[in-house]
Amino acid sequence: MNFYKATTAAVAFCAAGAVSAAELEVTHWWTSGGEAAAVAEFAKAFDATGNTWVDGAIAGSGGTARPIIVSRIIGGDPMHATQLNHGRQAEELIEAGLMLDLTDVATAEGWKDIVNPGSLLDSCTVDGKIYCAPVNIHSWQWIWLSHQAYADAGIDVPSNWDEFVASAPALEAAGKIPLAMGQQAWQSSGAFGVINVAVGGPDLWNKINVNKDAEAAAGPEMAKVFEAAAAARAMAANSKVQDWNQATNLVITGQAGGQVMGDWAQGEFQVAGQVAGQDYTCLPGLGVNEIISTGGDAFYFPKQDDPEIEAAQKELAKLLLSPEVQVNFNLKKGSLPVRGDIDLASANDCMKKGLEILASGNILQSGDQVLSADTSGQIEDLMVEFWNDPSYSAADAQAKYAEIIAEAD
After folding, report:
1. All domains in the chain, ordered by first residue
2. Bridge partners, 132 (sequence order)
3. Hey, which of 139, 148, 237, 320 would disulfide with 292, CB 3.0 to 4.6 Å?
């Protein structure tokens, strides 16, 4: 493709024309097999410019990594670049003047014309200035189903959420865990959000999360969502793993029927050599409301008192959105590219489903784009309590949830 030729030429020019090379420490929480393979594409491309990617992987989830990242930045020991999610996670750091303004890079590279949807770049923008480089679109709105588990149980692979719930007794009788679920707060909170969109519908989700409508949060349509979440809790009762990729492995190995997890799970299926449509099925919107959320990952660049480092930071920011790097990274990550002008003909069936939905415009923002970190944290705390305590009724959990939305910012 011409994109690839242009990018290769640009990289070669940068490497040949650079006055000096820089080492950039880059922090992120991509440590599973699929994630590590994907981030290696970023490192390889940056090293090819004559600079050096110093990998600062932080084991664990974003919930583990983000406090470490923020603490280092405000404590005067900033890394040179760091992964965060699209949205409001870096809001206070930007307002404190601790993040590098990338508006000149974004303008020169035409990001406003190529980033799709535009809400991703909006999430990087504060007071008209752009502070991050969005690198992918990750959607939470998926369930992943094991063909082996259903074959062992002697029943068909479900095509929607209701069929999945109905399949639970047969799976249990075959010694399977119906729903694989890790024990971390963000996993149960994320799964709840997916159930919210599938069962309650996008309009209800927007009323509550975007408009902060506490009456809708306390209403009868949301009651159905909490009842569905209680059913999911029961199906996941015997899933004792901790990390999300351990839960994905239960599906890959046929020990569990399914997992509600974002499309980053695709990277794990790929590393395991599994084929979409043959070894596993993916259902966007739980097969009920085929929609994707447009959250994902972005890179921010803490300010440095060094012109050479700053030049390298901006070079990395530009490279992250280059066509070839976008293709190579996202094919391994399982995410969708932020560029709307590249060819992904080699994408698997699940990624093609996501691309089709994206092209249709049937999208919604992710929770971390519309809720503050404090509100998101309160919802996570509620979900930990709800998922871990079978005696916590759906009605009581909904009442607490409505209180949180009423105070949301």
Report:
1. 2-138+295-358 (3.40.190.10), 142-293+371-406 (3.40.190.10)
2. 300
3. 139
CA 64 to chain centre: 15
Q: How many other C-beta atoms lie within 10 A of the C-beta of residue 104?
A: 11
Instruction: State the maximum Cα–Cα separation within the chain, in Å, rounded to a whole number.
Output: 67
Distance between CA atoms of 301 and 89, rounded to whole angstroms? 14
Distance of alpha carbon 269 from alpha carbon 264, whole angstroms? 10
What is the C-alpha to C-alpha distance for residues 269 and 333, in angstroms, rounded to an integer? 11
pLDDT, tens only, 133-165: 999 998 999 999 999 999 999 999 999 999 999
One-letter amino acid of 365:
Q
**Which two tokens mark 270?**
């790929």
Residue 35 CA to residue 16 CA, distance in Å, equals 30
Cβ atoms within 10 A of the Cβ of 338, count?
27
Which DSSP state fits 287?
Answer: G
Closest CA to 143 of 334, 288, 267: 288
Q: pLDDT tens digit string along 270-298?
A: 899 999 999 999 999 999 999 998 888 99
pLDDT at 8: 39
Cis amide prior to 117 (ω within 30 degrees): yes
Q: Tell me the pLDDT tens digit for each residue of 323-380.
A: 999 999 999 998 999 998 888 888 889 989 999 999 899 998 888 778 888 999 999 9
Give the separation between CA 82 and CA 97, rounded to whole angstroms.
16
